[in-house]
Design a protein that fits this description.
The structure is a homotetramer. Helix content of chain A is 30%, strand content 22%. By secondary structure, chain A is α/β, with parallel strands linked by helices.
Chain lengths: 455, 455, 455, 455
């Protein structure tokens, strides 16, 4: 009887495979499903069932593909917003036997209407569930967001409250296995810790501690979450089921003398290297989007049908980037370009840089004619920001670009300089010639004890 | 904040690494310690401390070696039977901060007098421990054995009872992280399941459910455990600390024409292939001990200073065998011999076989002049055995060999045929020429509805 | 400028990838093509062209699939027996530039009419070819077989003679890169050595040393080669091009209690473990075909549309077996069954054994009523055999089974016991109840100095 | 009979393992020897002998360590400059049998006095050597340098000439297996191609084509090679034999808030990231030395007993760097610091940048008060350089630093910008505040058709 957690960084997505006596079940598989088959094989198990705790909106579900590959059945909760064409609907108390294990459905709507949790019983030690897969209903330190139904926000928050009480009642001694960890766009307050129990959450989870339903509803309705535009596409795709595997298999290398010709017009050039590399030297008209920020920001800044050239340190990094894109349905990474700017330059190619500047220089420049653009989330901005700064969330930069003037001078900032560099690259690629990055950003500013404002 | 379980099959040993913000702690490392360093590196952590929950008697501790390698400090509980020369003694409530984690010592004597458990707190969600490393005090489905102090058996069983109450009280909501899983020689009743919580154990663990101390003590004293002779050597070595790494690095291949010469006298020939292979054909005078039975039976059948030739399907299998031996302090695996018996024979070498026989044939032969030797544990034998059978536990075969007559005919049996083959090989290598293996053994016998006895 | 040899054991197939300055070319890819893409990626190259030195008859070509995957062009020689639908035809002196490399076609018909060799020039050191890909025209120690056109055997042998002279003339200083090594069914006399030069072959290769065309033709016509029935299927498939990847992706594990039911009728049970394991214990009605003999004998003993259950030590071994089958177009390995016969028996399942016997016992039994069946190649048999033996080549056993009587007693033999075990398993699965294997076979017989005959 | 080439990038070092029938021989092993053991194991061979073609001066030999590990014998040529304490001396025509292979010594002094080559014969095809290990005597496209005995330079060049004639005579049909490939400091003219034969070299190798001994000697004496200061240390260590394995096993991560305290004084901070990253942002006082330039330039710029903090993108990159250092005897890489400059800055740490500039800006700045410093090799500089530039070879920068003025402004350049960045970092770390890097350097300059000078 084994259980294994499969973490997908970037998305902070957690999926699970649990097996006993030759059979295994997968919960919430991601699109690149080989890993589940490998684990099943290693444990000499056949994957018989795949549970989806809800219709995912932040990533492509691997359930249809994995089901096809293994001859497994996909199980999905009731009340989905659109028909899940590839799955069988399960309801409260439905059970699946897996060797000496028993999985049992608990309907836990709220985050979505089709959300379920799944109790995990050991037939040999069956007094109460040993574990519970909580999907996006209950996280370590947080609970699911409830902003997906704007017209019924109080209603679904109330549903979530009831669902949480249900979990507390039916699995008080269980380990929780949620669908996301810290860093996910599906919640703000998740713990960095990867393990917890229902009992521990009851004592520590700020939202689970709330005993009053109305107070819970009000607190949930007061939350502010961003809704990336690609979510609706994920919802559409995950209803009908994506059963093609991750694309592309091969990222064709593009020689150094070819990039400047036709590709710059037909393709997005996306530089996935570290921000330090991008600041140092990058290809003209290329965007910065470091590897581990792809799943968080590609859905805001680019379109899923854009054709892409990945600029990376090496093929491995480029493949990893293509995989990240593919996990959220961006399947058109076609070429890899090796970011050896010294070589590119030595062959006559152009390069561009962006200057990173320290707090002291920012302080001095904003007193001159430079604009300071803070691209953090609104919640971060409200907690503390620099008086002279203007706020546009990085995710909104594409939509609000017309509010900025390419002739003006901009210093971008965020919490550390990461998102600021992505923003600076976005501006520069869109014709802003005077852009600098505030390195260290809010952290560096506060380390100098410079004044901040709150709102 | 990550936690990772390192499973060591054979020993069914569980060790852990837990880290946060650049620092990590290891609990109960095994001798081959590279895996901890690899995980720490991957998580960009430095291993600062190593906890030993008790002085291990069934495996070589990797704590001294890992400490030397990483500059870490080893922490060990008080009241050890012998001074732990390489470790700092910690006491109840002693704490170690690891990034945003806090580890806190709970003295839990019983299994050994120096047993401790370690509470795991998340400073951000600190209301109660989120986890507890329970060593050999509390397992999933079982508790630690208490037969190591024969003169004070009631006393230490009572200590264990108190320790368990302590755990229930101080970590009711915690996940448990024990030092062993199912298959370990450190307990009989461990669950096959790899995960549990204190709360779930309280409801399901037969021994944790006992509320009466005297009843608990009586039940523990009634348990029967085997004590392999190598345990005392492990205790000695683990007190002084083994800080040489796993030996050998290189297992020299031995050509097919060399084995029959000098090696058969100076070396033990141990065939670690599947029992089916051994039955089919093996080198004369070689012992059978399949790869995953090494840690359980080598300590009974062979001496730790024996020089060994490993006979295996390939070098990889041989290296795995040498590693298994090394984990329990058998460091003299020097040669690897490829068990291609067709090749060996084609070059003029000898081979031997053992006939596996089905239940029907066993039934018929024991009515003639064949002896049926059951090598299971006494507890298994008592539950059900064949009337005509004689019992000698496999682990006692070496010591009780003189009770058997090499001129007699023996059919060996166990539960399935695995241990029976090891026993048959042991007899054959010791000059018993008429040996057969009851394939399927007790399982096959009962599948035929043949009569059994209980005792 | 790199070159890498990809060896495929079993088929003894050699393929190559050679690259320079961001571009690479593959020669004679096998069906599982990921390895070429991986090497290209690692060397930051795009695969632009794929050469086929001839239409392969012993394995599925990976050229169509790799071409589709990489957008590469497949190049094939002229005069193919059937149109190669997926390839461009190249002729003598046609060239392909690959970075600083130049590849140039040499038409070398003989083995097949469409055979080409490919010269490899380094543009910076261009005085003569540095290497030559010789396909099945010239091997290390041997030359290609010329028995594929029975009606024109002298003609094609003569073509090969001329082709070899051509190679000697145009690439005297080159390293040779042939399509097969020792163990291939495409030749008998190949050296075990993996590297050679044209100049070294001129001095050492028995057939290349022949200066007289007629003598060469006569010697080639006197050669005797076996032609496995699956060759014609390979030819058909490789003309039209197989562009599905290796099947299956997942080999479903079959629980121990299921095999005896429906599967034994609808499926071939093929046991790919070592012969020692099979001899020791195997599932009734299962065939023996050890992993590394699959590509050599599956094409003789089984049909490519048979549905197969692979019996193996573990999933990894089963997957390797399925891969071997897939390389020769056997795509119906559907299940994996773990060959733990002790477990199977303990659950009431049946097992069968085959007794291996030494030379002395063979000598004695053939003087009684046992038949001795030698399954080696005819060439081996002619060199030396036991007087009492009857010869049927293992590959012909299926076709000539009616010549044997299931009521009779058979001892199978070969050179060592490997093929003898495959033969014994084949007989046993076909209802022969009295079968033994001569372990060591001809080697063991001769080691005893027992008498042999020649013919 | 297998042969495998082990390439060590950076050093462009080639070593070999060749085996037959259970025994293998290694030629010129590098210090990290696990790879040879792994290959031997995989091929079921025991390493019986290790040949050193000469006493290496550019890397630590792994021969003593590998010999100890495997119980193998090290063989070394006669006339070594210092006694090779761990090796047996072999002479012309000495032979070693390895399965079906025979290795035979050819004394080929010149590069060093103890240089030998080793002929490789296949006993089954023994007419002439099939291969020859040529050490630093004969490369693909070049021959060994002969500047190690300044007082006898004509003499040793003559020795090399004679040795080359010997190779041509005794192995005309052989494949050559040299000890270095393109990029090595042991030669300038090596081909990028990794494979060749004696016959092909005779026709293409500029130095092997020379038929006149005096002409050869003159040409060799006219060559200019750099002699890194660490060579003498390598010679000393390789005479006595280094038999400790690569250090360190563990590179301790250094938290972001610790680097600025004590470490900057006691340690060298070496940043091994890409030059683009370094240009973008780096830790104050850190040196730039990208991963693949370590073995070429560490020996010039740093001392082997310096204690080092490796600054890298991640632990894997840091470990790779430590390995590179260790291969040339730099064993004091103690810490790893993650180069996330955004994080460092956000915690209040400092960062520094270097501006990369294009050709047009260089042209303009050198007409003002900026100095242009060309750090290429003298041979490169002589072929073409910018009139305004001053030349100091990068390797000499440490020794000639006093010739430059920290108050002056410097633009560094090389062929592309790589070495220029290393030089710029070296200047900046030594207190030069006004440093820029000419990105694209000579390549970019010439792509603009700007004027150059020769000689």
């Amino acid at each position: 009887m084994f259980i294994q957690t499969i973490k997908t960084p970037g998305l902070a997505h957690l999926s699970y495979i649990v097996g006993s006596q030759g059979t295994a079940v997968v919960i919430d598989p991601r699109r690149d499903v080989d890993i589940y088959v490998d684990i099943a094989n290693k444990n000499e198990c056949r994957i018989s069932h795949i549970f989806e705790t809800h219709r995912n909106e932040d990533l492509i579900s691997g359930a249809p593909l994995l089901a096809k590959l293994c001859g497994a059945q996909v199980l999905h909760g009731p009340h989905a917003d659109a028909e899940i064409t590839y799955a069988v609907t399960v309801h409260q108390d439905d059970q699946v036997e897996v060797g000496n294990l028993r999985l049992e459905v608990v309907e836990t709507p709220g985050h979505t209407k089709d959300s379920i949790s799944i109790l995990l019983f050991d037939n040999d030690f069956a007094e109460g569930a040993a574990g519970i897969f909580t999907g996006d209903t209950l996280f370590v330190g947080d609970v699911g967001r409830t902003d997906f139904y704007p017209l019924e926000s109080a209603h679904v928050a109330g549903l979530l409250y009831d669902s949480l009480q249900k979990i507390k009642a039916c699995a008080p001694a269980a380990i929780i296995y949620p669908a996301h960890g810290a860093g996910s766009v599906c919640g703000d307050g998740m713990a960095d810790r990867e393990f917890s129990t229902v009992a521990h959450e009851v004592k520590n989870n700020p939202l689970l501690k709330i005993d009053d339903k109305q107070e819970f509803i009000q607190q949930k309705m007061a939350e502010q979450h961003y809704l990336p535009p690609y979510f609706s596409e994920m919802e559409r795709l995950n209803s009908q089921g994506v059963n093609t595997s991750v694309q592309p298999k091969v990222l064709t290398p593009l020689p150094h003398n070819q990039l400047n010709k036709k590709y710059q017009q037909a393709y997005l050039l996306i530089d996935v290297r570290s921000i330090e590399s991008y600041l140092g030297a990058h290809i003209a008209h290329s965007f910065s989007l470091p590897l581990d920020m792809i799943t968080a920001y590609a859905g805001w800044l680019f379109k899923s049908d854009d054709k892409i050239v990945i600029i990376a340190d090496d093929q491995h990094m480029a493949s990893q980037a293509a995989l990240q894109f593919s996990r959220i349905g961006y399947d058109h990474c076609e070429y890899y370009f090796s970011a050896n700017l010294a070589e590119v330059s030595a062959k006559g190619g152009d390069f561009v840089s962006v200057s990173p500047i320290p707090a002291s220089e920012v302080k001095s420049l904003v007193e001159q004619d430079w604009n300071l653009l803070d691209v953090r989330k609104l919640t971060e901005y409200k907690q503390a920001h620099i008086a002279a700064s203007k706020h546009i969330f990085l995710g909104h930069l594409a939509a609000q670009l017309s509010k900025l003037n390419p002739q003006d001078k901009y210093i971008t900032m965020c919490a550390s300089g990461m998102r600021a560099t992505v923003a600076a690259g976005y501006l520069q690629a869109n014709g802003f010639d005077n852009v600098k990055v505030f390195m260290g950003s809010m952290g560096a500013w506060q380390a100098q004890d410079y004044p901040v404002e709150k709102a």
